Amino acid sequence: MNSVIRSKTRHQASALAVGSGLIIALGLIGCADAPGDENDELVEFASTEQSITAVGDALPGTVAADFAEAKAGFESQEEITDGVGPVMNEFACVNCHSQGATGGASTAIERRYGRVSNGVFNGLANRGGSLRQLKTVGPFTGLNGARCNPPLEVEPPEATVHNVGRLATPLFGAGLIDSLSDSAITSNQANQPTGQRGTIVRTTNLLPNPNDPNQTLNGSRVGRFGWKAGVASLAQFSADAYINEMGISTQHCIRGNSVLAFARESRPNGVANAPGCDDLAPPNGGGAFGIPAETDDVVGDCRGGVNELQDDVNLFFVFMTHLAPAPRTAIDPNINLQGGTVFNRIGCATCHLLRDYVTPSRPGNGVPGNFSFRPRTDFLVHDIGTGDGIGNDGDSVATTNRVRTAPLWGLHHRTLFLHDGSANSIEAAIARHRNQADGSRIAFNNLNASDRAAMLAAMRSD
Ligand code: HEC
Ligand code: HEC
């Protein structure tokens, strides 16, 4: 059904694209105001058909049983005996990623803090930052009868950047993004006019996909995940979320190297946990292979070229890798074309690109090859005046105020928008675009009713 609508869309578009202004006008609804002038480049808001039937489905070619197992891992509610805590935000990934289907966004908002001194950002890691875990496991009897009651994290007095909100992002299509080469992202920059040009985030890949020969441990990769594009790989985000959101620490083996970047328990506000009081996961083998005893779950000995993610982290990683983009809803092809054309004309598409990305022919992460998708972002960071002042240690204030162009897909499953969840509608999100996006916001406010309605309808159809 969807595929019929979409191929019709494509057909309509090319017919219109070669047509005259007159034909375009005939295609419009209530066309007292034609959409711009006849020289407008005609661009569809949605284009490629990907035969995905339902939100939450796996990408084509995924083994159903593997996906079901991985999804169950993502949905699994874990406990203090599994290593949850001592401080954390939630008990399962799905608790914050659920809108539309497992893996979606949510209304969950996290809190961060940091400090700027002499113009340089410091995430106050020694004081438990920049993420402030919002819960503890509460009082419990720890190892050897220890009476434990981990303290709740508070914002330390030295913070100058306060109580910043971060909304949970949707994960639909994340594996397609993970498969992209750096150049698929960096090439976007050159096409942007200087005033709107995005910044490429290059970052260290702390946990590569063990099966992707193009990703290396601690190698440089272009950041693409998170509101600030601060994380380069989905494997890393999986381990990172496990320790930071749930307090479960893990160790991994990458091509014979032991990875300890996610192996240490959170210390509430930077204060070491009392002995036996980090959680109730059995202490791991007393430091064998250099793995700290506090690590909740491990692969173990990496010698001999072992290449393996810890098993829960691997389940999250597999689930997100194979989670398909949310399918679009049906849309009148004329609205799709009018909406896309307007979106392009007023400059939204300078950052929210209206073009398809294509996965490599043999993606290292096992998603389908040569697969087109349209996330409507350049994966670059921009200052559009929404910046929250949170960054990595050593960042300038300008850097902390850049945010990744938010992908604009699956929007009809969302109820909150922007990195801090401060917008409750697409229009409200547009209204906060300033600085590099000033011109497009002003142009949006000046649209005639027909163009405005078509653009919003097109956006809501995805
Ligand atoms: C307490 C809520 C919460 C929980 C639980 C949670 N997340 Fe998230 N997730 C977030 C927030 C907030 C963001 C945005 C982070 C940012 O960039 O600041 C996010 C972003 C992500 C992203 C980046 C997606 C993108 O396109 O940028 C991935 C991947 C992710 N989470 C995976 C996971 C996994 C795996 C788990 C379970 C181990 C998990 N999350 C648990 C709140 C949560
Ligand atoms: C200069 C680049 C740029 C331009 C131009 C631009 N945007 Fe954005 N857009 C962004 C960035 C960056 C964000 C993320 C901001 C944040 O969360 O703080 C964003 C976020 C959004 C969001 C929220 C999505 C979400 O997941 O929460 C919507 C909706 C949106 N833009 C629509 C538009 C529309 C419509 C236009 C044209 C009127 C436009 N944008 C022009 C860069 C741009």
Give the SSE layout.
Elements: H1 2-17, H2 21-26, H3 64-75, E1 87-88, E2 109-117, E3 120-122, E4 130-132, E5 135-136, E6 140-141, E7 147-148, E8 161-167, H4 174-179, H5 182-190, E9 202-204, E10 220-222, H6 234-246, E11 252-254, E12 257-259, H7 311-322, H8 333-345, E13 357-358, E14 372-373, E15 381-382, H9 397-400, E16 403-404, H10 426-431, H11 438-445, H12 449-460
Antiparallel strand pairs: 1-5, 2-3, 2-4, 2-8, 6-7, 9-10, 11-12, 13-14, 15-16
Helix pairs in contact: 1-8, 3-7, 6-7, 8-12
Overall residue-averaged pLDDT value? 91
Q: From the helix content, strand content and strand pairing, which structural class follows?
A: alpha+beta
What are the low-pLDDT stretches, counting only 5+ consecutive residues below 50? 1-35
Provide the β-strand percentage band. 5-15%
Q: List bound small molecules.
A: heme C
Tally of separate helices: 12
Specify the biggest β-sheet: 4 strands, antiparallel
The outline comes out as globular
